[in-house]
Amino acid sequence: MTVVVKIGGARAVDPEGALADVASLVEDGEDVVLTHGGSTAVDETLEELGEEPTYVETPGGVVGRFTDERTMDVFKMVMPGKLNTDLVESLQNEGVNAVGLSGTDGKLLEGKRKSAVRVKEDGKKKIKRGDHSGKIESVNADLLETVLAGGYTPVVSVPVLGKEKDGGYTAVNADADRAAAAIAGALEADLVLLTDVSGIYEDPDDESTKIDSAATPEAFETVKSAAEGFMTKKVMAAEEALEGGASSVIVADANADEPISSALSGEGTTLEPGALDTGEAAQ
């Protein structure tokens, strides 16, 4: 079994327990691919440099980062630089022979660059140009399988390799949850999305309304309806992972004891391929 784990970049997420759990899984012979976010660290670095992060809302109501050239420079510095290196260092200290990779290495993660995005400002739809982002279209699964077969544990970070219209490449930003989803689909793996809550709640303010699982299109519609804010992107990523071939997707608490193992044992919210069987959830 291969497990793809995504550790969120929120301030409230402590990766220590997840890293110890990765070590336990690897010791037990499991293949683990670790991916990570880092929006909070990117925002903090921008602010230290005297610049404000820019977030935009799409016409569909999804809020995301607008990545201009300067922000992309900071992304390159923080994500595959400090954050990825820190995680690799921590895993080495846990006895895991980890290898840091960005999406640009070996064409690990590729997609078309989006140089302009549609946004909604003051109730009006506009085109905002100068964006450095992309949607992942292909994963070099062979690279990850080669690394895993050699006894190493990949730690994967965005940016990804964005294809320009002239045939060249530019490093671009991509959503870390969706990057993890693309990898899980390509490896037909279980995907564990670790975050700062214990799952997806029917009432986002009430933990007691946690949805344990969704194995039918009807149940998945309930999950989609319940998701709001940052959870919306996680559900989008879960849908893409399952469509791409992932065995399951689990949204779970990064700060729980043995967070990955407990997620795989049924904690959190488990989304199964059956949720997309009729295609209704993909509309």
TrEMBL record:
Supply one GO CC term from the record: cytoplasm
Q: Which domain of life is it from?
A: Archaea
Q: Which keywords appear in this protein's UniProt record, sorted alphabetically?
A: Amino-acid biosynthesis, Arginine biosynthesis, ATP-binding, Cytoplasm, Kinase, Lysine biosynthesis, Nucleotide-binding, Transferase
Location in or out of the cell? Cytoplasm
Give the Gene Ontology MF terms in alphabetical order.
acetylglutamate kinase activity; ATP binding; N2-acetyl-L-aminoadipate kinase activity
One GO process term, biological-process aspect? L-arginine biosynthetic process via ornithine
Q: Quick one: where's region Disordered? A: 260-283
Q: Does the keyword Manganese apply?
A: no
The record places the site described as Transition state stabilizer at: 6, 234
**Enzyme class, broadest EC rank:** transferase
Question: What pathway is this protein a component of?
Answer: Amino-acid biosynthesis; L-arginine biosynthesis; Amino-acid biosynthesis; L-lysine biosynthesis via AAA pathway; L-lysine from L-alpha-aminoadipate (Thermus route): step 2/5
The protein's annotated catalytic reaction(s) are: [amino-group carrier protein]-C-terminal-gamma-(L-glutamyl)-L-glutamate + ATP = [amino-group carrier protein]-C-terminal-gamma-(5-phospho-L-glutamyl)-L-glutamate + ADP; [amino-group carrier protein]-C-terminal-N-(1,4-dicarboxybutan-1-yl)-L-glutamine + ATP = [amino-group carrier protein]-C-terminal-N-(1-carboxy-5-phosphooxy-5-oxopentan-1-yl)-L-glutamine + ADP
The EC number(s) this enzyme carries: 2.7.2.17, 2.7.2.19
Entries under Pfam families matching the protein? AA_kinase (PF00696)
Segments forming domain Aspartate/glutamate/uridylate kinase: 1-252
**Residues annotated for substrate binding in this entry:** 65, 173
What this protein is reported to do is described as: Involved in both the arginine and lysine biosynthetic pathways. Phosphorylates the LysW-bound precursors glutamate (for arginine biosynthesis), respectively alpha-aminoadipate (for lysine biosynthesis).
Report the family membership. Answer: Belongs to the acetylglutamate kinase family. LysZ subfamily.
UniProt name for this protein: Putative [LysW]-aminoadipate/[LysW]-glutamate kinase
> What's the name of its gene?
lysZ
